[in-house]
Specification:
2 helices, about 30% strand, elongated
């Protein structure tokens, strides 16, 4: 016995091929409900990514302030207010930290760390007053260092 199947032949009379519109709608509704359940259980945001974006914004603002000091041939000051969670660049952006992130700053190469208002200054030759800003989000700490001699901004995980 030989079976011959012709895929391009029209369906026989009385047979049905494919799905009805109602069947397709029901399947789509079920898939949408399952997707809504799984999406609803996932975290809306990631605190680690938020902290990383905050660190990146602060580093970008610091490096931009150094570049403006060199380019404009005038000093640029950054005000760091750990108590109110604000980071302000003179003539530039103000970054407001979320309540979940604590900030401790120390000005100068041997400055004492604290939550009070701290100022970091970039000179026209690229140097700076130096300092360190530590952002803490739960168990994770990130340190942003500003070298006093070169004005170089670096980022490291703090213990």
């Amino acid at each position: 016995m030989t079976w011959r199947i012709n895929l391009f032949a029209p369906p026989r009379e009385g047979s049905q091929a494919g799905f009805t519109l109602l069947e397709m709608i029901v399947v789509l509704v079920v898939v949408a409900l399952i997707a809504a359940i799984f999406v609803g259980r996932m975290p809306v945001r990631s605190h680690g990514l938020e902290r990383r974006a905050l660190v990146d914004a602060m580093v970008e603002a610091l490096r931009g302030a150094r570049g403006r000091a060199i380019g404009g041939n005038r000093p640029i000051t950054i005000a760091v207010n750990g108590e109110h969670g604000r980071f302000t660049v003179e003539g530039g952006p103000t970054i407001q930290l979320p309540d979940t992130v604590a900030m401790i700053a120390a000005a100068g190469p041997a400055g004492e760390a604290g939550k009070q208002l701290t100022g970091i200054r970039f000179a026209p030759d690229g140097s700076s007053s130096g300092g360190r800003i530590v952002l803490a989000d739960g168990k994770r700490h990130t340190s942003i260092g500003i070298d006093w001699l070169t004005g170089r901004v670096s980022v490291a995980d703090a213990p």
